[in-house]
Amino acid sequence: MAASHIQAVLFDLDGVITDTAEYHYLAWKKLADELQVPFDRHFNEALKGLSRMDSLKKILENARPEPSFSEEKLNELADRKNEYYKELIRQISPADLLPGIHNLLEDIKERGIKTALASASKNAMFVIDRLGVASFFDEIVDAARIQHGKPDPEIFLTGARKLNADPAFCIGIEDAEAGIQAIKAAGMFAVGVGTSENMNQADFLVEGTRDLDFEKIESAFLLKNKG
């Protein structure tokens, strides 16, 4: 195949590399129950792609009456949720890598294309270590290293900068609407994993990770950018 113009591929973590959504849900559910705030799986869907603090604030907005916590207390609650989450993710292993991802990472590495992880999770490094795929990533950009969460493009632009890549020649892969918005705002080609209902801004869409074929992504990228 002709040489690709793609300089880098940036991956979201949750829902793309692995699915830790259930662990996040259980951790938030435990905290919400302690605070006696209504929280269920349906509401949890609205938290996809949001930072820990934004998620906490959204959950607290659901309380009646809505509590008024100091910044210090909010940080304490967010940290408590994170401790619950970290306890749960200790059981993650390479078996939790989503279908097709290992082959995709190998394919990209063999082509000499740079990669970065662009995740809202501050535990991203721990998770990919547990999954056994840390060696595939040239850079890790997590929420601890940025000021603005998705849909702000900062995390993807930071990743591109660290890889010395032009955003116009980068691919971003996401499973959340906020993530797709961030990729597009960064001026990158957006690959969505999910349904067209939630991924209507994606340039290329697959139903699941097992359908992430690099040659197909590359072809769609080149078609969109030819001329």
Class from helix and strand fractions: alpha/beta
Say what the CATH topology of the largest domain is. Rossmann fold
The biggest beta sheet reads: 6 strands, parallel
- Share of residues in strands: 5-15%
Average pLDDT number: 92
Shape: globular
Helix coverage percent of residues?
A: 40-55%
Q: What is the H-and-E element order? A: EHHHHHEHEHEHEEH
Query: What order do the strands of the largest sheet run in, or round the barrel if closed?
Result: 3-2-1-4-5-6
Distance between the termini: 19 Å
**Spans with pLDDT under 50 lasting ≥5 residues?**
none
At the fourth level of CATH, the homologous superfamily of the largest domain is HAD superfamily/HAD-like
**How many beta-strand elements?**
6
Number of helices in the DSSP assignment? 9
User: Over all CA atoms, what is the radius of gyration?
Assistant: 18 Å
Number of domains in the coordinates? 2
CATH class of the largest domain: Alpha Beta
CATH architecture group name of the largest domain: 3-Layer(aba) Sandwich
